[in-house]
């Protein structure tokens, strides 16, 4: 079936067997969606966020976290409305496809693809740091640890949706229990003034340690707050993955908004507690945490000593594992949706004949993320790569996320303006102003991210990926499109109700 003249795209007829080989199973309710959203993010409360102390000090980190929370509130309320109105696995790509056409949908999906392929790679570097610290493995063997963890958690996601969601629920609850245990443990061991405020500014403008504390809340001023925004993103990054579970949700129009909003409320409370307590523990401090790959473990060690370091390390690993597991889930669905519609090679969207999970998409996505890690590792050398790979990958993931957020917020605004006829079971209380705030904060965050010296190293890989996939879509993909649920909805201008295949 050809498109009208001038569109430059062609839809190919497929038979019922095409969608039969790409079937998904409905399982998730509100609780499962909540666990999926919180689990995807929770690793950011265990590692990554703390690098912001080096650019903003404690007060800069707190205020940056608040600004980023506003951005995510605007985003999550927007996608809560869109996911109920367009309950398709495509999520960001689906929203942008309906609002901005095929190329808009493709580029939005590509931005989100960078986020979900690279974020597991970031998390596994933190996991490896914890494992090396606990077991005493020489960091030179880190690639082996990466491969082992990817293999285990891709397999868990492949062998059944119900198993995947049950694992997600269990490790998310354990992760939150670990954080609550740490909060309760930390409160009697706090010295906020001496340790949280122990960062000053040296002659070269870099952070220096104040042994007696008592420093400024904002040692780098307001510019330090803005420079800390990319690190604060790690406190909430990936909550937006929930709409990718739309076709595996029992009632996405009702449950998806509830799951997203409950997840965001949980994360805001946890983020505030960890930013307040982790650097305030006696013997830790903001300065030490500003370069730590295992901040929560540092806090637990300071409270309980080294005698139980193995047990404490295993406990501290849970949050990282929760996010690693759930983002591999999201990665598979994101690749699956673009492939099912023909934007990516269509073979990637075939689901497992028994378990009905997008196993090909998850395996290929994991292989790409792992390949990027190995290329960086061997091109830089083990010693240099060990100290920079986490930051390089984090910049790649955050840049992809920011572009995706801008596109999703723009899609929300356009759909509010141009598609008033679409049924909206849920409406964002923040409306268009919330979406505008998301765009503004995301643009500012990108602007300050560019100043990170590791940004250029990471963004070059992102540009290469964009060039390769844009060439594929321009030359091949757009001539092999399929009327998937996302495409059918967009083609009809939102008039065709969603139909499950």
From TrEMBL:
<keyword id="KW-1133">Transmembrane helix</keyword>
<feature type="transmembrane region" description="Helical">
    <location>
        <begin position="458"/>
        <end position="476"/>
    </location>
</feature>
<dbReference type="InterPro" id="IPR002293">
    <property type="entry name" value="AA/rel_permease1"/>
</dbReference>
<feature type="transmembrane region" description="Helical">
    <location>
        <begin position="58"/>
        <end position="80"/>
    </location>
</feature>
<dbReference type="Pfam" id="PF13520">
    <property type="entry name" value="AA_permease_2"/>
</dbReference>
<feature type="transmembrane region" description="Helical">
    <location>
        <begin position="392"/>
        <end position="415"/>
    </location>
</feature>
<feature type="transmembrane region" description="Helical">
    <location>
        <begin position="140"/>
        <end position="160"/>
    </location>
</feature>
<dbReference type="GO" id="GO:0005886">
    <property type="term" value="C:plasma membrane"/>
</dbReference>
<keyword id="KW-1003">Cell membrane</keyword>
<feature type="transmembrane region" description="Helical">
    <location>
        <begin position="167"/>
        <end position="187"/>
    </location>
</feature>
<protein>
    <submittedName>
        <fullName>Amino acid permease</fullName>
    </submittedName>
</protein>
<keyword id="KW-0472">Membrane</keyword>
<feature type="transmembrane region" description="Helical">
    <location>
        <begin position="260"/>
        <end position="287"/>
    </location>
</feature>
<feature type="transmembrane region" description="Helical">
    <location>
        <begin position="307"/>
        <end position="330"/>
    </location>
</feature>
<feature type="transmembrane region" description="Helical">
    <location>
        <begin position="217"/>
        <end position="239"/>
    </location>
</feature>
<feature type="transmembrane region" description="Helical">
    <location>
        <begin position="360"/>
        <end position="380"/>
    </location>
</feature>
<feature type="transmembrane region" description="Helical">
    <location>
        <begin position="427"/>
        <end position="446"/>
    </location>
</feature>
<dbReference type="InterPro" id="IPR050367">
    <property type="entry name" value="APC_superfamily"/>
</dbReference>
<feature type="transmembrane region" description="Helical">
    <location>
        <begin position="27"/>
        <end position="46"/>
    </location>
</feature>
<keyword id="KW-0812">Transmembrane</keyword>
<dbReference type="GO" id="GO:0022857">
    <property type="term" value="F:transmembrane transporter activity"/>
</dbReference>
């Amino acid at each position: 079936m050809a498109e009208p003249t001038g569109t430059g795209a062609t839809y190919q007829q497929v038979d019922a067997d095409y969608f039969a080989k790409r079937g998904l199973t409905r399982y998730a309710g509100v609780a499962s969606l909540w666990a999926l959203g919180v689990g995807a993010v929770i690793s950011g409360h265990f590692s990554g966020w703390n690098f912001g102390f080096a650019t903003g000090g404690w007060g800069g980190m707190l205020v940056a976290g608040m600004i980023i929370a506003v951005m995510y509130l605007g985003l999550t309320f927007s996608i809560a409305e869109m996911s109920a109105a367009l309950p398709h696995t495509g999520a960001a790509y689906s929203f942008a496809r309906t609002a901005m056409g095929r190329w808009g949908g493709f580029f939005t999906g590509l931005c989100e693809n960078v986020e979900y392929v690279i974020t597991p790679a970031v998390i596994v570097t933190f996991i490896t740091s914890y494992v090396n610290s606990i077991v005493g493995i020489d960091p030179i063997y880190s690639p082996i640890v990466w491969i082992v963890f990817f293999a285990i958690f891709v397999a868990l996601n492949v062998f059944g949706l119900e198993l995947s969601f049950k694992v997600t629920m269990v490790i998310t609850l354990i992760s939150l229990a670990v954080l609550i245990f740490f909060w309760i443990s930390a409160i009697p061991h706090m010295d906020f003034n001496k340790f949280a405020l122990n960062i000053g500014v040296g002659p070269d403008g870099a952070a220096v340690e104040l042994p007696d504390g008592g420093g400024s809340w904002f040692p780098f001023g307001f510019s330090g707050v803005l420079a800390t925004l990319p690190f604060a993103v790690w406190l909430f990054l990936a909550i937006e993955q929930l709409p990718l579970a739309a076709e595996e949700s029992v009632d996405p129009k009702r449950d998806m908004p509830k799951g997203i909003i409950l997840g965001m409320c949980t994360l805001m409370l946890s983020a505030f507690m960890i930013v307040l307590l982790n650097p305030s523990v006696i013997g830790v401090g903001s300065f030490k945490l500003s370069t730590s790959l295992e901040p929560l473990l540092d806090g637990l060690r300071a409270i309980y000593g080294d005698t139980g370091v193995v047990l404490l390390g295993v406990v501290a690993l849970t949050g990282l594992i929760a996010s690693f597991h759930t983002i591999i889930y999201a990665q598979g669905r994101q690749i699956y949706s673009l492939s099912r519609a023909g934007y990516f090679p269509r073979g990637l969207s075939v689901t497992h004949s028994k378990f009905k999970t997008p196993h090909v998409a998850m395996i290929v996505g994991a292989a790409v993320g792992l390949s990027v890690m190995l290329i960086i590792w061997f091109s830089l050398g083990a010693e240099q790569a060990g100290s920079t790979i986490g930051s390089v990958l984090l910049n790649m993931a955050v840049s992809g996320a920011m572009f995706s957020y801008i596109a999703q917020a723009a899609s929300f605004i356009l759909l509010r303006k141009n598609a008033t006829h679409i049924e909206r079971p849920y409406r964002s209380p923040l409306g268009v102003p919330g979406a505008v705030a998301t765009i503004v904060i995301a643009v500012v965050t990108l602007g300050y991210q560019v100043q990170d010296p590791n940004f250029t190293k990471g963004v070059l890989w992102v540009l290469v990926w964009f060039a390769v996939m844009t060439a594929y879509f321009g030359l091949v993909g757009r001539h092999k499109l399929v009327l998937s649920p996302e495409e059918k909805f967009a083609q009809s201008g939102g008039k065709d109700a969603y139909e499950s295949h």
